[in-house]
Amino acid sequence: MKELIRSSFVIARRDFTAIIFSKAFFFFLLGPLFPLAIGIAAGGLGQQMAQEIDRPLVAVMLPADEAQALAKAADRLSAQIGARRLPDMKIIAAKDDMAAQVAALLKGDEGNENGDGEKFIAALSGDFASPVLTGAADDVMRWQGEIGLLIDTAQNAADTPPTEVEASIVADSDGARTKLRLLTAQAGQAALFMLTMFLAGMVLSNLVEEKTNKIIEILAASVPIESVFLGKLFAMLAMALIGIAVWVSVGAFAIETFGPGLPSLPVPAVGWPLFLLFAILYFIMGYLLLGSLFLGIGAMATTVREVQTLSMPVTMLQFLVFGLAFYTVSKLGEPLELFAAIFPFSSPFAMLARAAQVDTLWPHLLALVWQIFWAALIVRISAGLFKRNVMKSSNSGKGGFFAQLFSRPT
Amino acid sequence: MSANAIEARGLVKYFDDFCAVDGVDLTVPEGSIFGILGPNGAGKTTTLRMLLGIINPDKGSRSLLGADRPLSVAQQVGYLPEERGLYQAMKAYDAIAFMGALRGLPLKTGRERGRQLLEENGLGYAADKEIRMLSKGMAQTVQLLGTIVHKPKLIVLDEPFSGLDALNQGKLENLIRAQAEQGVTVIFSTHVIAHAERLCEEIAIIAGGKVPFHGKVSEARDRLRPQVTLETRNSDGPWRQALPQECDRNGQHWHFTLPETGVEPLLKALIDGDAGIESLSIERPGLHDAFVAIAGEAAAREMDEANMETPS
Question: Rounded CA gap, A326 and A91, in Å?
Fold first, then answer.
């Protein structure tokens, strides 16, 4: 055991330094920051655009007193339900040929004449008794109701003061909390999945260099194949964790500085510090579980081309696992959710969702032990398959498959 | 611990249906230089890989430095595989240190010794170069140094001379002798008989997955009687009785194996019978002749062909 750890460490150290001191690693670190930067830029831009688009302008061509009343009603309603729910309005003096004026306004000619270049989406004409809203079908239907409400308010409630509704807030109803925590659970799962998907897949091609360069001969003659697998796995894990640490710190800094601030998710059931600890632990476990599987699969491939071909089905496999976990987030305690929590590959995802929703801790301990057991088992099986199929070694006649699985490496 | 560095009994290895090694027995005494001779594809590499525990045999047992799990003594073993391989991006001294680290040598010590070994072998200037920048022969030397950096008790070299020029082959022979003087057991495989003849006390000949001979070089030679080459003035006479039946005749030249009776009766018959000896040579057979006799003509031809490609 001591020798296994020592030799795994030697392999991991070599791989880790080879990765860290390569130029490619720099791009690896930069990669996720591109979309992040674009996301922040687009977020700012989007907000601006939203402001411009969201307040459509309606031309009001009512008699002067009615137009004033309508403007007052608009102010009053804005105070109550928010300005964004109502169209912007501009009072336009009616001309003799109203039909032609409306047409010109909607086409934008009139606006240009006034020199302010405003674009109207609709025009309100007639009077309170028989108002007419002219415009494109979509816009008219969209704002018909609001205009009607404005006219009603202008006619009936212009003089009474706005009614104040007293807010009586119940401290977090249980139902609301559960519903909100679902959000944390899903967000946590999604983040975990994205990271595992991007990072665990990289393990797939990890043994190709050794095999094409025949270094595997030297490795296999000096250390157990299990050490080679473990070492590679942990080197990649260390690289992934460094990457995540960099991305998270840069991302958090960027969002705090340039962006709209961190979105506030509901506090998970086990509390934030413990939840984050679980997130890290479950990422490690998810990475080790999927990574060991991929390493095993990749080790069977003889060429880079084969590895590339394999990467698609492997990604699909991940989607399946994640789909299972994601589907069961809201089904706490149901058989399918229990299955997702027990099935080794989906277990880290399902258990993180649990951490967000349930505050009992012992199942996590159990799950972690269970996941470690499976990761070790997969490494063992992968190494065995590798020895038999790639190195063409044989069973050395020591009992069956399971006896070998648990015997000491020869 | 037994006095044998390697003991193998009845090793058998199948690759699918092909039997690569078919019952190999090997005994390599500690502190000796041991050669495994055989043509390409005879099963030399497979045998070595089984001895080292890279692969398990289908049948048979092996013990390496007294251990039946070869990897458990990996720290005392050095191995240079036939197909050389190093991480291309590693620097020469670091590659040596890494190979030492695999065998339990602390990285720092490995790096120091790596530089020192490179210096001693005239490659000091290349210590900080990446492996990909080195020539093939240099990379091979680096790998060889990585094989001995942890001061192993047993060194296994698979075709160590192939790919080296005559000068470097000589250096390698010296290195092997130097290791053996320190009590290290060296076992190497080769298809070039000359190296085995110069270096080895004992050899095993492998052909077709079997070991038709295992023992001392002199013993292999003794399997063949000395060869006589004779040139006479007269082409016939009573002295012809003294020549054996299987005798190659080429005009006045005669070539045959020295009869069991020895040199004297032959000489006496030749002189008394007035053969008129122009020249006479009686030579002990070389390892090559012994190899031909033991492994067969076909195996010898294969080896000669291989030698053409990689002249020794």
Answer: 52
Q: Does A216 touch chain B (CB under 8 A)?
A: yes
Residues A342 and A233 in one domain: yes
Number of domains within chain A: 2
Q: Assign B312 a pLDDT band (cuts: 50, 70, 90).
A: very low
Q: Which amino acid is at B254?
A: W
Q: Please check whether residue B76 is in contact with residue B153, taking contact to mean a CB–CB distance below 8 angstroms.
A: yes
Cβ–Cβ of A224/B99 closer than 8 Å? no
Q: Is A161 domain-assigned? A: no
Q: Are residues A358 and A232 in the same domain?
A: yes
Domain final residue, candidates A156, A184, A216: A156
For A176, residues 6+ apart whose C-beta sits below 8 A from its C-beta are none
Q: Contact B86/A213, CB-based, under 8 Å?
A: yes
Average pLDDT on A282-309 reads 87
Q: Number of helices (H) and strands (E) in chain B: give both, helices first.
A: 10, 13
Q: What is the CATH number of the domain that holds A118?
A: 3.40.190
How far is A376 from chain B, CA to nearest CA, in Å? 20
User: Domain residues of chain B, as ranges?
Assistant: 4-221, 225-283
Is residue A150 located within the same domain as residue A181? no
**Residues A20, A70 within the same domain:** no
Please count the other Cβ atoms lying within 10 Å of the Cβ belonging to residue A257. 9
Expressed as residue numbers, the domain containing A143 is 55-156
Distance in angstroms (rounded) separating the CA atoms of residues B158 and B73: 19
Instruction: Examine the domain organization and report whether A247 and A392 are in the same domain.
Output: yes
Give the confidence band of A8 by pLDDT, cuts at 50, 70, 90.
very high
Does residue A163 sit within a domain? no
pLDDT tens for B76-131 read: 999 999 888 889 889 999 999 999 999 999 999 999 999 999 999 888 999 999 99
Query: Do residue A209 and residue A347 come from a single domain?
Result: yes
Band of residue A227 on the pLDDT scale cut at 50, 70, 90: very high
Residue B229: pLDDT band with limits 50, 70, 90: confident
Say how many Å lie between the first and final Cα of chain B, rounded.
Answer: 37
Look at B55 and A392 and tell me if their CB atoms are within 8 Å: yes
A294 vs chain B: nearest CA distance in angstroms? 22
Q: Is the pLDDT of residue A237 over 90?
A: yes
Q: Which of these CATH numbers, 3.40.50.300, 3.30.750.24, 3.30.450.20, 3.40.930.10, describes B4-221?
A: 3.40.50.300
pLDDT confidence of residue A74: 86
Residue B191 scores a pLDDT above 70: yes
**Angle, CA of A326, A329 and A332, to the nearest 5°:** 150
| A6/chain B closest Cα distance in angstroms | 8
Q: Domain check: are A143 and A224 in the same one?
A: no
Q: Is the ipTM of this complex over 0.95?
A: no
B277, β-bridge pairs: B232
Residues A14 and A101 in one domain: no
Q: What residues in B contact A218, CB-CB < 8 Å?
A: 79, 81, 85, 99, 102
Give yes or no for B81 touching A (CB within 8 A): yes
Residue B130 sits at the chain A interface (C-beta within 8 Å): no
Q: Is the residue at A68 inside a domain?
A: yes
Question: Using CB atoms, which residue from B71, B83, B98 is nearest to A409?
Answer: B71
The answer to whether position A48 is within a domain reads no
Measured between alpha carbons, how far is A344 from A356 in angstroms, rounded to an integer?
Answer: 19
Cβ of B102 within 8 Å of Cβ of A409? The answer is no
Whether residue B53 and residue A214 make contact (CB cut-off 8 A), yes or no, is no
**B145 at the A interface (CB within 8 A)?**
no
**Alpha helical stretches, state H, chain B:** 44-52, 92-102, 107-120, 136-148, 166-181, 193-199, 217-222, 263-272, 287-295, 297-309
Q: What pLDDT digit, counting tens, does each position of A185-217 carry? A: 888 888 888 888 888 878 888 888 888 888 888
* Residue B62 with chain A: CB contacts under 8 Å: none
Q: Find the angle CA(A307)-CA(A308)-CA(A313) to the nearest 5 degrees.
A: 90
